[in-house]
Write a structure and sequence with these properties.
By secondary structure, this protein is an alpha/beta fold. It is about 30% helix and about 15% strand. The chain is built from 29 helices and 36 strands.
Length: about 950
């Protein structure tokens, strides 16, 4: 589609419900009270010249270009800072205003470089546009006067440059860093002609606190801050709105193209999940789509020790189908299965599970969503009746108290974290429950009111203790509980949590959290106004993950913090389509819509539409598939977009299971670690090359639109369809919209979803049906989906993973801002500048006891394995706790994680592993062997890639 930039109204939209009518240039306009005159004029189609104003930022009034005249008032106020008034009469274009604006513009141009024809922003420069808008044709002062300092171009950031000679000191970049991102990395240094934008302490952008979110680049009206891609390629001429394929925030972007080349990703202001903001990954880290490692042709090999052989799509599909048929004929119908991807679209995930259930004839389907957030589904389904979070992201703007437990939003969900930090700066209170001192505990302009640094594995004890305080101190919202919840079950829960063994003083012995902190946090949560809970993998990836989710749900019900804006229970999903992959029926026991395979009516509905009898017994989860492979009964697997060898626990056990299979099919972008054990490699497509939908953490279904043709020739759903047809189960879809139509026919919460509706509304949040034709931003308003809310007794059961003399430390894992999941995508972008390797965070006390210095190689060993990495000595972790990320395959952190898992869902206990740390001379022998294996696999593929 044509570029058609989004309209900039100059100032933010007023949220007032009271309307005001005024006259602008002889025309009446009615707008909400509090609207600026600039915005009111723009809404009626009149653009008042401006430079410092943009609707992503609060009014500033510094450029003096947006002057207006108001009947009955003296002077010429700035339209951006002047609110509308009832009956006001405004003029935006008079002889006096023309003279004043030209004079202001002359001053700007007199000291600005006159290199428009060669400037990278030529044709995309607001200064250039405004000079034309005010009719500037001459500069009386000449161009040789004093100018702002020009220390030279700073191109240290891998994605954008800073050229101070072109700066007009409008402060938009500084304000964007403060108001939108909340990092406060930029300032205006010095005064007058010496004024200059400065990152932090006059460092380079790369060395500063800048997090490369792109807000400053987006705000800049000139070429002072500009993407290197624009400088290299040129300004874009077309744009397509799509959805980011990184984390579960689900940011909307305008993918701006020049020809068939992607120039930049601009966060869409109308995006309801991100509201015009972005992070370094979504904004800049899309280069992996054309990385040299990308595999674009199918490959097969009979044995994993053989070299890869490039083949046609037809041969690859036929070979895969024949192998799967052979295996089932020899070992039985249940001897093969598949894994769906939380990175692929809803439609692609739906087709994979349909292929397995109707084409393979079994329920052996699982997904990476189970190894991160399946306790969310189980816990919230049990207590509230729906397997998803309760709010939209806008809800945080109404929160008075925010409780963050087991989540690190500034690294894992940075765009939402920026909105959360903005609310905190406005006065909301913050409680952080986390073993580490994350950025939310203390960072510029944000400080938690209470940080509960619990010992890993004690979530249930701490949350239940919060409930103890709420019940024993009479802080329960009894009216809400009596009206909305099962009263008898509440009384059982209240008696349980009131037991003295759950008192903060007793729980302090288990968790290490001071009792007084627990008491104060509980009181604040119960009495501080609208209180919202946000949680992440630090809650779910435990042996008691489901129990903790239910304990959190209990807290919200007991205090009445559910069913309205500003409150709720909100899981922060890790990958872009974790919610969608769950919704689409990727679990062995559930069909799309979270309906059990034993439900007769549901099975009959699916069988009638799919034309095949379906098994009514659950199939195998990933760990069951691996165990079955080792005992010889499971022989083939189809893995779409998931690197289970790097992401799943106990790597050596996983490798042994894959090696025991006779046909491993990997469909991915790169030769990921799992592909070392593959017999067939089917090249996948990126989010830029496909149509479909993603569902984010707030249940928001959003369009993914094809920006460019797939370099492999097919979208992922088309590959699955070809395989299904070759197996003898026909699928005939021409477009993903037809798959969504089928999803809507089969899934009650998606009944009203269609591509037409998504295009019309931008996005919808399920449930979207006859009762909620435009979706459901906030759930459980009048009643819970299950009717009455269910309180559940949450007994704390200590994990079987215990520390001791051999393994005295507790390892927990997480993510870092610049990297994503196992790093297959982000490691193939310039983001590696910020994170070249995984590091082991260790407290100075523990490091000193082991003779470890910062940067030393250390061996980390557990009961299941060992690996080595460099140490990072920091007080972000407590004594007795160590922490690392898992973005680099050479680290292989999951070599040391155990097979302990959540009692209800098998979600692995990544967050609690007993380990020992000791000095090392470098990578372990196992790592070196593994690296050689990976290098050998890459060498085999290199001639095939080069041949293209």
């Amino acid at each position: 589609m044509p570029l058609n930039p989004e309209t900039d109204y100059g100032t933010p939209k007023s949220k007032s419900e009271k309307l005001v009518t005024l006259t602008i240039d002889g025309a009446e306009v009615t707008v909400p009270e509090g609207t600026s005159i600039m915005r009111a004029a723009m809404e009626m189609g009149t653009q008042i010249p401006k430079l410092c104003a943009t609707d992503m930022l609060d009014s500033y009034g510094s450029c003096r270009l947006c002057l207006i005249e108001i009947e009955g008032r003296n002077g010429t106020p700035a339209s951006c800072t002047t609110p509308v008034g009832e009956g006001m009469v405004v003029k935006t274009q008079t002889d006096r205003l023309k003279r004043l604006r030209k004079g202001v513009m002359e001053l700007y141009i007199s000291e600005h470089p006159l290199d428009c024809l060669t400037c990278s922003a030529n044709g995309d420069c607001e200064l250039q546009d405004m000079a034309g808008a005010v009719g500037l044709r001459d500069v009386r002062y000449g161009y040789d006067g004093q100018k702002h300092p020009n220390p030279g171009i700073d191109d240290s950031n891998p994605y954008f440059t800073y050229e101070p000679s072109k700066c007009i000191v409008c402060s938009r970049c500084v304000r964007a860093c403060e108001e939108v991102q909340g990092t406060f990395a930029l300032t205006i240094a010095n005064r007058g002609f010496q004024s200059v934008v400065s990152p932090s302490m006059q460092e380079s952008f790369l060395e500063s606190e800048c997090v490369s979110c792109g807000a400053c680049v987006q705000a800049c009206p000139t070429a002072t801050l500009n993407e290197k891609s624009v400088i290299e390629i040129g300004t874009p001429d077309t744009a397509t709105v799509t959805t980011c394929a990184y984390c579960g925030v689900g940011c909307s972007f305008r993918a701006e193209m020049r020809g068939d080349e992607l120039v930049r990703m601009i966060p869409q202001k109308e995006g309801k999940a991100n509201r015009g903001h972005s992070c370094v990954k979504g904004r800049f880290a899309y280069g992996y789509a054309h990385h040299k490692d990308r595999i674009t042709k199918p490959m097969i090999r009979e044995k994993i020790t053989d070299p890869w052989r490039e083949v046609s799509w037809e041969e690859a599909i036929q070979y895969t189908a024949s192998e799967f048929k052979r295996i089932q004929a020899k070992y039985g119908k249940s001897s093969i299965g598949g894994i769906t991807s939380s990175r692929c679209t809803n439609e692609e995930t739906f087709l994979v599970q349909k292929l397995i259930r109707a084409g393979f004839g079994n329920n052996n389907v699982d997904t990476c969503a189970r190894v991160c957030h399946s306790p969310t589904g189980y816990g919230l389904k049990t207590t509230y009746g729906e397997s998803a979070g309760t709010q939209d992201f806008d809800s945080v703007e109404k929160s008075d108290v925010i409780l963050v437990i087991g989540a690190n939003p500034t690294d894992g969900h940075p765009v939402f974290a920026s909105r959360m930090k903005k609310r905190l700066r406005q006065g909301a209170k913050l409680i952080v429950v986390d073993p580490r001192r994350t950025d939310l505990v203390k960072s510029p302009n944000v400080k938690a009111d209470y940080h509960l640094p619990l010992r890993p594995g004690t979530n249930v004890a701490v949350v239940t203790s919060l409930g103890h305080v709420i019940v024993t101190e009479g802080l329960v919202n009894e009216d809400f509980v009596r009206e909305r919840c099962e009263w008898d079950e509440f009384q059982d829960w209240a008696r349980f949590v009131a037991d003295p063994r759950h008192a903060p003083e007793e729980v302090e012995k288990i968790s290490g959290v001071p009792a007084e902190l627990i008491r104060k946090a509980a009181r604040l949560y119960a009495t501080g106004g609208n209180a919202a809970i946000y949680y992440g993998l630090g809650v779910t990836e435990h042996s008691q993950g489901s129990t903790t989710v239910m304990a959190i749900a209990n807290l919200a019900m007991a205090t009445g913090n559910i069913g309205r804006e500003g409150v709720g229970v909100n899981p922060l999903r890790g990958q872009n389509n974790v919610q969608g992959s769950c919704d689409m029926g990727s679990f062995p026991h559930e069909l799309p819509g979270y309906r059990h395979v034993s439900d007769t009516a549901t099975m009959e509905l699916f069988e009638s539409l799919w034309g095949r009898p379906l098994l009514d017994e659950p199939g195998l989860r990933i760990p069951n598939m691996i165990d079955a492979a080792l005992d010889g009964s499971f022989k083939g697997i189809y893995i779409q977009g998931e690197d289970i060898l790097q992401s799943d626990p106990n790597t050596q056990h996983m490798a042994a299971g894959l090696a025991a299979m006779e046909c491993v099919v990997v469909q991915d972008l790169f030769l990921v670690e799992t592909a070392n054990y593959a017999h067939v490699f089917l090249p996948g497509s990126t989010f830029l090359e496909k149509n479909g939908t993603f569902t984010n953490a707030e249940r928001r279904i959003q369009r993914v639109r094809k920006v460019m043709a797939p370099v492999n020739g097919y979208e992922d759903w088309e590959i699955t369809q070809m395989l299904s047809n070759a197996l003898g189960y026909p699928m005939h879809y021409d477009h993903p919209s037809q798959i969504m139509d089928e999803i809507a026919r089969l899934t009650p919460t998606f009944t009203g979803v269609s591509y037409e509706k998504l295009d019309e509304l931008g996005s919808v949040q399920w449930p979207c049906n006859d009762e909620a034709p435009e979706g459901t931003p906030v759930m459980h308003i009048e009643s819970f989906t299950r009717g009455k809310g269910k309180f559940v007794v949450t007994e704390y059961v200590a994990t079987d993973e215990k520390t001791g003399p051999r393994f005295p430390l507790l390892l927990t894992t997480g993510r870092i801002l610049s990297q994503y999941n196992v790093g297959a995508q982000t490691r193939r972008t310039e983001n590696v500048v910020w994170h070249e390797e995984d590091r082991l965070e260790i407290h100075p006390f523990d490091a000193e006891n082991r003779g470890v210095r910062d940067g030393d190689w250390v061996k980390i060993a557990s009961r299941t394995g060992e690996t080595t990495l460099r140490a990072l000595i920091t007080e972000r972790v407590a004594p007795g706790v160590v922490y690392t990320t898992f973005h680099h395959p050479t680290t292989q952190v999951n070599v040391v994680t155990t097979e302990f898992s959540d009692w209800a869902t098998n979600c692995p206990e990544y967050k609690v592993t007993a380990v020992q740390v000791a000095p090392s001379n470098g990578p372990s022998e196992w790592q070196e062997e593994y690296e050689e294996l990976s290098k050998a696999a890459r060498r085999i593929a290199e001639p095939l890639v080069a041949a293209e």
